[in-house]
Amino acid sequence: MTDVRTRAIKVSCEDCFFRQNHLCAVSDAGPCATYRPNHPDGLRPPSQLRFMFRQDRRLQVAWAFPSASEQVAMHAGR
């Protein structure tokens, strides 16, 4: 069983969208920072992580103002 993190994908300039469509302006050999895989659908943005809310953290309040009844009780003695 291979670990996904240890398996590296080999990329080359010949597989790049920009090189395949004659849009590459880099003269160095090897993939650069602008490498995008050539896909039949065309240029697609790289996939990004999905943002997920954590419901359990929303319920925990680090600090909050006293409720109205607590404020009345604090100031009733004055």
Count the strands?
0
Q: What sort of overall outline do the alpha carbons produce when their principal axes are compared?
A: rod-shaped
By oligomeric state, this entry counts as single chain
Arithmetic mean pLDDT: 76
Number of helices: 3
Radius of gyration: 28 Å
Q: Distance between termini?
A: 72 Å
Counting helices, strands and paired strands, the structural category is: mainly alpha
Helix and strand element order: HHH
What share of the residues does DSSP label as strand, in percent? under 5%
Helix content: 10-25%
Q: Enumerate the spans where pLDDT stays under 50 for 5 or more consecutive residues.
A: none
Largest sheet: none
Secondary-structure map:
Blueprint: H1 17-20, H2 55-59, H3 68-75
Task: Describe the structure in your own words.
This protein has 78 residues and is mainly alpha-helical. The chain has a domain at 1-43. Helix content is 22%, strand content 0%. It has helices at 17-20, 55-59, 68-75. The longest helix is centred in the last third of the chain and has 8 residues, at 68-75. It starts with 16 loop residues before the first helix and ends with a helix.
In short:
With 78 residues, the chain is an all-alpha fold. The protein contains three helices and no strands. The protein has a domain at 1-43.
Key traits:
mainly alpha
